[in-house]
Design a protein that fits this description.
32% helix, 12 strands, Rossmann fold, Ubiquitin-like (UB roll), 28% strand, alpha/beta, 2 domains, three-stranded mixed β-sheet, elongated, 224 residues
Length: 224
């Protein structure tokens, strides 16, 4: 033990001498390479260029003194970004790996439809080849994301939903590709949706168009 302590003392003493021998002029003369390359992965080329343009406007100095808040602000301002990580590659490049959000619905805001991402952000509705349910009403964005989360946990197939209707009473109606409309109770969870799914699998729908599940422990089928 005394020998280890003596070694540590010698190492600290050597470091003290080394640091003390560097004067202010030496520190001032130290120069770091500016960041020369930023690689972005996970987005389409046009979206990558937009982030790169904004990052270049930051005039990033070098890899050792990156302003993390500014960097995060630019990346997170992009509505397509759900998750990301930044990897410094010495001496003068960084990699930004992005997980692109999945779109979950089209929602009307101020008379214009937007794509709503699983990250809770809105993007311009400029993708025509993607099938998504439309949201009617004025729900909070977090309420839509939470609804999608509960449906995904249940036995109900979200891809079969064509419309989601939100009411000011905090209640939802779901309309499916087979024109069936399900009226959900104000409060529901995965278990509620699983009971509805089980009920639908074990009855003959015939001409029934509406399943009213608003009353607890009751399933009422209606023609209209």
């Amino acid at each position: 033990m005394p020998q280890r302590k003596n070694k540590k003392i010698l190492i600290y003493f050597f470091l003290l001498i080394l640091v003390g021998s560097i004067n202010n002029n030496s520190i001032n003369n130290l120069k770091f390479e500016k960041i020369k390359k930023i690689n972005i992965f996970g987005l389409d080329e046009n979206d990558q260029k937009l982030i790169l343009y904004n990052l270049n406007n930051l005039d990033l100095e070098n890899i050792f003194f990156i302003n993390k808040k500014n960097l995060q602000s630019i990346i997170e301002s992009n509505s397509l970004v759900e998750q990301y990580n930044v990897i410094k590659k010495y001496p003068y490049s960084i990699d930004i790996n992005i997980k692109k959000t999945n779109f979950i619905a089209r929602i009307n805001k101020n008379g214009k439809f937007f794509l709503l991402g699983n990250n809770g952000k809105l993007s311009n509705d400029d993708i025509s080849n993607i099938q998504l349910p439309y949201i009617f009403g004025s729900p909070e964005i977090n309420e839509v994301v939470e609804l999608k989360k509960i449906i995904d946990q249940s036995n109900i197939d979200y891809s079969q939903i064509v419309s989601l209707y939100y009411f000011n009473s905090n209640r939802w109606d779901l309309k499916f590709t087979n024109n069936l409309l399900i009226k959900l109770p104000e409060k529901f969870d995965k278990e509620t949706l699983d009971k509805i799914s089980f009920f639908l699998e074990n009855i003959e729908l015939e001409n029934k168009k509406i399943l009213d599940a608003r009353i607890k422990n009751q399933m009422i089928m209606l023609n209209e």
